[in-house]
Amino acid sequence: MMNIVPNSEHKAIGELARGLAGQDLRKNWARWEETHEFPVETLKKLASHGLMGVNVSKEFGGLEAGVVAYSNAVQAIAWGDPAIAVTMCVNNMVAEVLQEFGDERQKAFIPKLLSGQTPAGSFCLSEAGSGSDAAGMQANARRTDSGYVLNGSKAWITSGEFAGAYLVWAQVENGGKSSISVFFVEEGTPGVSFGAPEEKMGQHASNTVVVNFDDVEVPADALVMDVGQGFKVAMMALDGGRIGIASQALGICDALLEEAGRIGWAASSYWSGRVEAARALVWRAAKLKEEKAPFTYEASVAKLYASECASALGDTILAEAGIEAALNSNFLQKLVRDARVTRIYEGTSEVQKIVIARELGRRLG
Ligand SMILES: Cc1cc2nc3c(=O)[nH]c(=O)nc-3n(C[C@H](O)[C@H](O)[C@H](O)COP(=O)(O)OP(=O)(O)OC[C@H]3O[C@@H](n4cnc5c(N)ncnc54)[C@H](O)[C@@H]3O)c2cc1C
């Protein structure tokens, strides 16, 4: 029987993150909501405590504390402000991809992503016409004598305008799904430009932009793994990413219950039970990933359950707690807005159901 209960180190990292969230995020969320500011100094502070690379080796400046600790840290940061949690999640994901699949030059960039030297990393998979159907991407990499030339536009890219490094997925020589590859592109590379920041309904302190790649020349060693390995890398990264977003949704649930309590709405055992069930599912997926066991199914179940729970809980509180919950000055209304996108990124709820059905089919033979 797998023990999914966090140990003292996992708990300590969650408590450290909760402390930072209480000191900084809870004091600033209202201003960030208003100004849509990307809080670079706060992200540096998280980095200085290791939170931008919780499951990354100490060799690269990470905490090397594992996936359960990572989940606890994301839950705590999302409790403080879910917008900061998504920036943290994507940075951790980019660093983990480089650690797992990068060559020496690419890995050498990880300390910059973890130390706060660059505010964040970006994961450039989605396009305007290919979100759920990632394999339908149009971005292309043309071979040259010295490397590749990238062309294409990536949509909805978290931290895009501020990223120190981009993982960019593209077909090679328009070769279709089997040619999809991933490239490591550093900030400042000529030909990389951005659209205006998206005016989102929630998570205003996260930056979301179109990132354009116009004749971007990269060396041959910008390729991560081999040509044609990109789709597999993306799917593996998204499995891990789903644990992050499920943890973010859980942090939202914790904050919702607490804030609703402040205005006199007492959670029923039904809601407390749903939130704790979500936490158990998230820890189970995290533990499996930590043990290097298959976790695709468990990560999708956790992400689906936790994100749907956050939205449904928010709706219920708005319906039952009285008008105060909906006032702009109240953190509750922000949490309700912020919850919605946890059902979209890292795969929508409908996509999670497809993954779950496929994985169940495999297990049942
Ligand atoms: C705030 C934000 C940040 C994001 N950050 C990033 C990022 O950093 N990097 C990145 O690469 N992407 C990012 N994304 C993109 C995100 O991953 C996509 O929005 C998501 O995968 C859905 O794709 P789509 O928006 O194109 O919707 P579509 O794929 O067009 O889906 C539209 C609707 O159809 C449903 N649907 C689609 N296919 C099926 C199917 N086969 N069966 C049943 N229903 C289906 C979907 O569930 C959805 O409800 C971000 C998105 C948002 C909103």
Keywords:
about 375 residues, alpha+beta, Butyryl-Coa Dehydrogenase, subunit A, domain 1, Butyryl-CoA Dehydrogenase, subunit A, domain 2, Butyryl-CoA Dehydrogenase, subunit A, domain 3, 8-stranded mixed β-sheet, 8 strands, binds flavin-adenine dinucleotide
What can you see in these coordinates?
The model has no long low-confidence stretch (mean pLDDT 97). This protein has 365 residues and is of the alpha+beta class. It is built from 11 helices and 8 strands. Strands 1, 2, 3, 4, 5, 6, 7 and 8 form an 8-stranded mixed β-sheet that branches. The protein folds into 3 domains: 113 residues, Butyryl-Coa Dehydrogenase, subunit A, domain 1, CATH 1.10.540; 104 residues, Beta Barrel (Butyryl-CoA Dehydrogenase, subunit A, domain 2), CATH 2.40.110; 135 residues, Butyryl-CoA Dehydrogenase, subunit A, domain 3 (Up-down Bundle), CATH 1.20.140.10. The relative contact order is 0.12. A hairpin with an 8-residue loop joins β4 and β5. The site of flavin-adenine dinucleotide (FAD) has 19 residues, from β1, β3 and α11. The site of flavin-adenine dinucleotide has 19 residues, from β1, β3 and α11. It comes from Microvenator marinus. GO terms for molecular function: acyl-CoA dehydrogenase activity; flavin adenine dinucleotide binding.
